[in-house]
Predict the 3D structure of the following.
Amino acid sequence: MSKRLAVAGIVVLTAQPTYAQSSVTLYGLIDDGITYVNNVQTAGTAGRKKASQTYLASSILAGSRWGIRAVEDLGGGMRTIVVLESGWDMNTGRFQQGGDYMGRQVYIGLGNSVGTVTLGRQYDLLLDFNALTTSNPWGSGYTAHISDLDNLSGTYRVNNAIKFKTQPYHGVVFGFMYSLGGIAGDVTRNQQLAVGTTYVNGPFYGAMTYLAARNPNISVYGNTPSAGPATTNNIGATTLTGVQGNPAISGYASAHSKDIFAVGMNYKIGGGTLYANYSNVRFSGLGDTSAGPNPFGYQGTAVFNTAELDYSYYVTPAFMLGGGYVFTKGTGPNGNNAKYHQPQVTFDYFLSKRTDIYGALIYQKATGRDSTGQQAVASITAITPSTSDRQFAAHVAIRHTF
């Protein structure tokens, strides 16, 4: 999540003399830097090979984007809200989010003193509410929980979503989201449903969210132009000899449903903030080939429990240091039980209100067997998996908002 500062392209419109001013704001963000990884998989004629990699990486702390936000005051405390936001890769010029032109978010809604209802492609409540209990706002995409399996870093958006969030009442906010599957004759297929709440009291922030997704290989992982039908594994590649994708969870594409429960808090202490969160993710009803491929013949349920503890501190008003630890335990069918340990440190130095330089060091250690039924390999989120049980990554970048 990032702080957006809209400083250019403001147009003020007046619809009727009795209405208050309305506005259209153009905004954007650019995030680009250098990543080094000590061990990534590469394809070879005799199977996977180990290699180190250094490359330019865009959108690691905050997604590079441009957007339009329109607000029209309808009078009587009612307003219309429109957001159109596109994500793109700084180094190739290509659209992100699987090639979607407005892939980050695009929605329209109405708001008043009670709350706001929005319709369109949106973030789910896990990002809206629980991301603030993680290192996501100040760490990097590399510090996310493995494969961002609980979406607390907002990797996956929700199509066809109706979302309602109340205005704060004595520090409490409630939220509800429903995504229509749109399948004729089966109202529940590909649907998503979420409820959540937050509570703020002085230095304390708490959040709790539950999300249930049917046919997650399509509804969660397959809602972009680059995704395939149910016969395609949209979670990631499960190859045993080539380059893998999200091996911790990609073997569970045949899940009939995916359920996520997340709870967390942050607490400000002087110039620092303590963060703690927990999530439980369940891939249930494995073996539903109408939902996704099942090359390993799995049945039953795979469960992942993740805990994270972080601390960030502003050494000066312009310089922040942070660090934390993430632990994930996965329990799957056929003895596919794995553990992932991930310590991480980050820094952020603001050159101005709109430009900063940030960096991150991440190390991951894997044990056990992952969703492919093989020895678990380290797989830092958004980085090609390692050939071994260990992986180290370093990243330094510059970010600018406008």
Summary: The domain at 8-401 is CATH 2.40.160.10 (Porin). The CA atoms of residues 364 and 393 lie 9 Å apart.
